[in-house]
Amino acid sequence: MIVEPSGRDEFLELMRETYGSAMSPAEFDWWFDRNPAGPRILNVARDGGGTALGVLAMSPARFENGLVAFAVHAVTTPAARGRGVFSELELHNEQQAAAAGAHWALGFTNPMAGPILVGKLGWEDVTQLRIWVRPKRLRLRRRGELREPTEISTRPRELPGHHIARDEAYLHWRYAASPRRYAQAGDTVVTYAVWHGMSSAVVCEHGRGLNRAVRAVDADIAVAIVNPGEERSFLAAGFVPTPRRIRFIGKRLREDAPPLPRDRRAWYLTLGDLDFF
C-alpha cells in the first residue's frame, strides 16, 4: 500500500463516488488551503496499481494551549475493506500532525470510525457532548433557509476551558471569509443545515442575541451543543436537552503533550467547531 498526498479533485471525486455528494471546490479551498492554523493534512492510500483505496484528512486548529489537529473527512472505497486502509492513513496523518507541532488529535466521531480509533489506534473517550434542540414549527416541513446572511464580527472572544482560540484570524476565516452563509445577532452566529433529516438553525457561536439569531433561520428546529454554565440561557430561549450525544475523542500525539481531561467542564465546544456546519 502506498500513502501519499491527495489533490483536491481526487478527494472530491472519491467523496462523490462514495457518498453521492461532496463539498464544492470553493469550500475545499477555503477549509483546507486558507486555514490560518496551518497547512492541510490530506493523504490518499493506493494499491500497487495506483488505484485510490481511500483518503483521510486532518484539519489544524489553534487552541488556547497550542496546536491540535481534528480528524475530518474519511473516505474509503469498497475495495479497501479488510485491508487496514483507514488505520494506515490515520496513523500517517497523526505523524504529520505531530511533526507540525500538534500535541493532541481530536475528533467528533461516528459509529464507524470510533471503534477503530478508540479500540485499535490508541485514542480515548474524552467526553459526551449533549445536543439541545428548540422546536421552531408545529409541523415539520423539512425545508428552510437562512433568511438573510449578515456580516460576521471578527472581534476576539475570551472563552473558558479548552477551546479553539477565537482570535481575529480564526473568526475571519471560519465565518467572514467562508463560502457558506451565516448570520449574527449579538455574539451568536447561526447557519442553516439539514440535520438528521430536519431543517435546522445551527447555533455555531454562543452568547448574547441567541433568540434573535435563531429567528434569522427558517427551519423546523434549532440545534446546539450547550456547555456547562450556559444551560440557563438556552433554557430561557426555549432549548431543551435531548438524549442525542456526540462522542468526543482524542489522542496525545507527543510524549510531552498534556493529558486529555475527561471532565465535560474542562471543554468549551460548539457546533461551529465541526467541519460540516
Structure summary:
With 277 residues, the protein is of the alpha+beta class. It is 23% helix and 33% strand. The longest helix has 15 residues, at 85-99.
What do you see in this structure?
- It is built from seven helices and 13 strands.
- With 277 residues, the protein is α+β, with helices and mostly antiparallel strands.
- It folds into two domains: 2-128 and 247-273, Gcn5-related N-acetyltransferase (GNAT) (Aminopeptidase, 3-Layer(aba) Sandwich); 130-244, no CATH class.
- A hairpin with a 2-residue loop joins strand 9 and strand 10.
Unreliable segments (pLDDT under 50, ≥5 consecutive)?
A: none
* Biggest sheet statistics: 11 strands, mixed
| Name of the CATH first level of the largest domain | Alpha Beta
| Share of β-strand residues | 25-35%
Number of individual domains: 2
CATH topology descriptor of the largest domain: Aminopeptidase
**Helical stretch tally:** 7
Categorize the overall geometry: globular
Tell me roughly what share of residues is in helical segments.
10-25%
Structural class: alpha+beta
Return Rg in Å. Answer: 19 Å
Order of helices and strands: EHHEEEHEHEEHEEEHEEHE
**CATH level-four homologous superfamily name of the largest domain:** Gcn5-related N-acetyltransferase (GNAT)
Count of extended strands = 13
Mean pLDDT: 96
Distance between the termini: 33 Å
User: What is the name of the CATH architecture of the largest domain?
Assistant: 3-Layer(aba) Sandwich
The order of strands across the largest sheet is 1-2-3-4-5-13-6-12-10-9-8
